Every structure is written in C-alpha cells, then in structure tokens.
C-alpha cells in the first residue's frame, strides 16, 4: 500500500489588505548582525505575521523567522513637551518594539554617504548656535551661568597673582609712554545756534 505525503504550508501571505498603512517601520543599521538579518523599530500593535506580510507585499522579501522584543523606557521627571517644568511629576515614555527578521536573501547596506559635500559641518555649527540662542528665551534662562563667567574668574585670579598685566580689549591702540599729547584738530569751529 502506497502512502502519500501531505505537506502543510504556513499561513498564506497577503491576505490582510492594507491600502494605506498608518504605521512607520524604521530600518536600523546593525553592522554586528549577519547580512541575512534586518532589525526594525516597529509600532507596538504590529505583530510578527503583520511584519512578515508587509515585507512580502511591499518589497518581495520572504521572511524565514521573526523575533520581537519590547523595551520599556526609564521613568522620567516632567514631560519633555511641557512649557513649565513640573517637578515630582513622573511619567514613563512609550515602550519601543524592536523586531529582527531573518531573510532568505542577504541585504547589504550601501556605503555611508560623505555629508561634507553638503556642508554638514556648517549645518551643525548653525544648529548649535540656534539652540544656544533659543536657550536665552527659556523661562529659566536667568538662572543659568554664562559660559564666559569661568574665564573671567580665571583672568581675575591671574591678575591678583600678578602673573599677567592687564590687557585692554582694543588691540589697535598703541600707547607710547612719555610722548607729548598732540592736538589733532586745532582749527575746528563750532557753529552757534540761533534762537
């Protein structure tokens, strides 16, 4: 008597119809993983089958296995969006869900782009300057110690120790000791005001 083997297949892909997904998947650069693995930050409501189905229908990637991990965030004091800081008001930020998939074909990240061609250093300097300027308009800006305060204190200590002599702020002026005072404009006439 001959026996026939029946192969059971996994769930069919593409049965859940999502026309405009309202979630965001963030692909993470993970150089420590092999090229057949990819990691994502996913929304908390997305499950393993949804991710597998999404990757198949959008990118044609067949997934062999999916691992997920929900990471709870640390408790913080005061919400980050509050205009007024509320001490002793604790909250826990939303948890992060990290999903790692194993693909049948390897995926290799492209080379890192050199951002200096697009003036990244200028952008970063401008960003720091703007953030420093915006800090001056914060409600607690008057309580912050200015950055030049420490250098003034250091200069005062050096002057008291007499290590350095006092230097004026304008370096263009050159004073010559023992020189006579010279009147620059001698024939200047001031007009009289008529009443």
Automatic annotation (TrEMBL):
GO terms for cellular component: mitochondrial large ribosomal subunit. Pfam families: Ribosomal_L23. The keyword Mitochondrion does not apply. GO terms for molecular function: structural constituent of ribosome. The keyword Metal-binding does not apply. Keywords: Ribonucleoprotein, Ribosomal protein. One of its GO terms (biological process) is mitochondrial translation. InterPro entries: Nucleotide-bd_a/b_plait_sf, Ribosomal_uL23-like, Ribosomal_uL23/eL15/eS24_sf. It comes from the Eukaryota. PANTHER family: LARGE RIBOSOMAL SUBUNIT PROTEIN UL23M (PTHR12059:SF5), RIBOSOMAL PROTEIN L23-RELATED (PTHR12059). Belongs to the universal ribosomal protein uL23 family. This is Large ribosomal subunit protein uL23m. It comes from Oidiodendron maius (strain Zn).
């Amino acid at each position: 008597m001959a026996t026939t083997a029946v192969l059971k297949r996994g769930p069919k892909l593409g049965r859940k119809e999502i026309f405009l997904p309202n979630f965001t998947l963030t692909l993470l650069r993970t150089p420590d993983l092999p090229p057949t693995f990819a990691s994502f930050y996913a929304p908390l409501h997305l499950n393993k089958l949804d991710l597998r189905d999404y990757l198949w229908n959008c990118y044609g990637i067949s997934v062999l296995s999916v691992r997920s991990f929900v990471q709870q965030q640390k408790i913080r004091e005061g919400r980050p969006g509050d205009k007024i800081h509320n001490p002793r008001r604790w909250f826990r930020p939303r948890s992060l869900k990290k999903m790692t998939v194993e693909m049948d074909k390897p995926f290799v990240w492209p080379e890192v782009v050199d951002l200096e061609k697009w003036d990244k250093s200028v952008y970063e300097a401008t960003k720091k300057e703007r953030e420093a300027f915006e800090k001056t308009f914060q409600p607690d800006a008057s309580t912050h110690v200015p950055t030049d305060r420490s250098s003034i204190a250091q200069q005062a200590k050096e002057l008291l120790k007499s290590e350095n002599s006092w230097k004026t702020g304008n370096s263009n002026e050159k004073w010559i000791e023992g020189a006579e005072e010279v009147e620059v404009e001698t024939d200047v006439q001031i007009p009289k005001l008529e009443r």
